[in-house]
TrEMBL record:
Protein name from the UniProt record: Acyl-CoA thioesterase
Top-level taxon in the UniProt lineage: Bacteria
EC number(s) reported in the record: 3.1.2.-
Organism: Rhodococcus artemisiae
Stored Pfam families: 4HBT_2
MF GO annotations: hydrolase activity
Root EC class: hydrolase
InterPro entries: 4-hydroxybenzoyl-CoA_TE (IPR050563), HotDog_dom_sf (IPR029069)
Keywords: Hydrolase
Amino acid sequence: MAAISGEPYRAQVEVRWGDSDQLGHVNNAKVVEYMQEGRIKFLQSDEMRHLAIVVRKMDVEFLRPIKYESGPVTVEITAMHVGNTSYTLRHAVLDRNGGVCARGDAVLVGFDMTTERPRPITDGERSVLARHRVAATT
């Protein structure tokens, strides 16, 4: 069971007419873009704005179709794990009625542009992540 010690970060993303396939469903690649748009908004906080990060891994589960009428969608982001050089963010894409349409976890790594190697997560990053942290309980 998971207990939330912080609040999810929420970002609205418009569903664009051209995002749909021939069936009228938003293409899966576009759903991943919605997650990315929400994540970019999340990472624009003052504490994290100028820090380089890279996505190391992303797993996505598509739960229900998104249609043009489903939008705008809300991307909720929570921090699931914070390590020394990386952290995991969970993205939930909700339709306009609050139904969860997709969920995805991304492992992000702090990146040193000079050495092109992982860098330690800063205190500022940890502070932002703590405000949106989901802690597992036993």
